[in-house]
Amino acid sequence: MRGTVRQGEDDRGEDQRGENRLIADLVAALGADHVLVDRDLTAGYETDWTGAFTGRAAAVARPASTGEVAAVLRVCAAHGRPVVPQGGNTGLVGGSVPAGAATGAVVLSLRRLTAIDPVDTAAGLVTAAAGATLADVQTHLRTAGYTIGVDLAARDSATLGGIAATNAGGERVLRHGMTRSQIAGLEAVLADGRLVRRLSGLPKDNVGYDLPALLVGSEGTLGVITRVQLRLIGLPRARTAALIAMADLTAAVNLVALLRATVGSLDAVELMFDDGITLVCDHQGLPTPFPGRISPVHNTPYLLVECVGRTDPADELATVLETAAGVLHVAVATTAMDRRRLWTYRDGHTAAVNALGVPVKLDVAVPLTRITAFVDDLPALVRAVTPSARLHLWGHLAEANLHVNITGPDRDDTRSRETLAGAILTRAAADGGSIGAEHGVGRAKMPWIGMSRSPDELAVMTAVKHALDPAGLLNPGVLVPPYGIGRAADPALP
Ligand code: FAD
Ligand code: MLT
Ligand code: ZN
Fold first, then answer.
1. Beta strand pairing call for 195-198 and 183-190
2. Nearest CA to ligand 1 atom 15
3. CA angle, residues 459, 464, 468, in degrees to nearest 5
4. How many CA within 13 A on the CB side of residue 296?
């Protein structure tokens, strides 16, 4: 018995010495100021934006260059310690924090890699370090008369590296596609320190596998992205936004098809409902958009439409809306201030819902032909599991992407939360939809990944991961089951 106790003490002592050696080697690589171990300093890196995922990190490493990123990976590999890459920590599927299989990992924060290169107008490209925020890149480009085809409400914190690593969607996918289609090149450090670097800016360069495209959407599991090159978009001269209250969701879906077919300047079509807008108004102390004109009985759907062009697109949009079926009320915004006001109703949803408690956060795609029936059936699906839960719906209607959030079940009520998620994701998959439209899989959607990818596809993904990261160093538990270093570190495994 005493021997066993002493053995435990020896193990703990050895663990502590191992931890100390890891920290000492990280400090040797980055300097003491950029290796955080104090709980007050690491806490903000250890819990995700929603508050659903949390875990202790061995340390937070804050490199300032590609070379320092490679050094951190080498140290962690030598110590058998997993690594969780992190940008702005705005990800919504738990992939950016050292939780689950990655508990005790080193968080590799990219936030010190912030340099943005001068705008390359000849090639039509901008290149920036992975830790530059989307808002900083947008500001940098605006002064030169450009923007990029990616935008989302987390723009002030989300980084280019995180946006690339999640292949983020957002509010401009209708015209520009997902992030992958805006990325012209990138630089990434693989788990063993090798570099993938495709930043030539050449639009034609067909020489073998498209490795940058493979890294886009890899959620920190295949490499650490250090630089991102994006296509420039000319800043539109004129913009018009319109908030449109619709008779019902079928009319909203039909209006999307009509706008797509007839309004060439169409740039965004976002979906909200009256209860969501009311929640945002309560959260931010805003007036409702159509006071006294919306029936509180019927949960009216709204479309937020934006058109852009060289000349004012307001007339083009108004002409279509005047005769479109199911349009109840329209608020048009042509000034920047009025447009921002309308977009606040849309962009305020995530924070307003989170203020009610840690939501069950789902992000599905359902074919537009089935989306009305799906939405109609959701309240009963939710009630069957948790009668008192509250359902929140919004999304990117042009891309058939619905954000289904449920508040009510306690953060630690794993059973109710997983039953709810399982029921809704099963229904989305049965409708020919996707269990992860734009946020990715992370840790949150791993139990259901097989609903959207076949066993053969999952086996290929696993083979790719093992080929690029044979030791299992990077973000264990995300996208493929943990193995090697990741499995050895998983506290839940024997
Ligand atoms: P993080 O959260 O830090 O990381 C996300 C994932 O990428 C993790 O798996 C992490 O390991 C990995 N990662 C991060 N940086 C790197 C890197 N340099 N190299 C390798 N891997 C890396 N998403 C959408 O698609 N559309 C939206 O409309 C949208 N709106 C949002 C609105 C709000 C208010 C919030 C909070 C989030 C929203 N998101 C949206 C989630 C979205 O995924 C992120 O905002 C963004 O893409 C993540 O960037 P980040 O820098 O915060 O990455
Ligand atoms: C959105 O479109 O609002 C985002 O993807 C964030 C979310 O789903 O909360
Ligand atoms: Zn979204």
1. antiparallel
2. 162
3. 150
4. 4
Q: Does 155 share its domain with 77?
A: no
Q: 197 pLDDT exceeds 70?
A: yes
In a domain, 13, yes or no: no
Q: Are residues 30 and 99 in the same domain?
A: yes
For a ligand 1 pocket test, name from 76, 152, 157 the mutation site with the most ligand atoms within 8 angstroms of its C-beta. Answer: 152
Integer CA distances (angstroms), 136 to 181, 217, 253, in order: 21, 22, 34
Give the whole-angstrom CA distance, residue 382 versus residue 384: 5
Question: Helix (H, G, I), strand (E, B), or coil: what is residue 337?
Answer: helix
User: Which ligand 1 atom is the nearest neighbour of the CA of 49?
Assistant: 36
CATH of the domain at 171: 3.30.465.10
**CATH code where residue 437 lies:** 3.30.70.2740
Write out the residue range of the structural domain in which residue 180 sits.
125-234
In a domain, 161, yes or no: yes
- Give first-to-last CA distance, the chain, whole Å: 22
Q: How far is C-alpha 376 from the chain's CA centre?
A: 26
Encode pLDDT of 162-172 as tens digits: 999 999 999 99
Q: Tokens at residue 29, please?
A: 């690589």
pLDDT digits (tens, 9 = 90+) for 25-59: 999 999 999 999 999 999 999 999 999 999 999 99
Is residue 188 domain-shared with residue 278, that is, in the same domain? no
Rounded Cα distance between 494 and 490, Å, is 9
Kindly give the distance from the C-alpha atom of residue 81 to the centroid of ligand 3, in angstroms, as a whole number.
33
Tell me, what amino acid is at 231? R
How many domains are contained in the chain?
A: 5
What residue ranges in 232-389 does DSSP mark as E strands?
Answer: 233-234, 238-246, 266-273, 301-309, 327-333, 360-365
- Looking at the chain, how many residues does it have? 494
Strand, helix or coil at 460?
A: helix
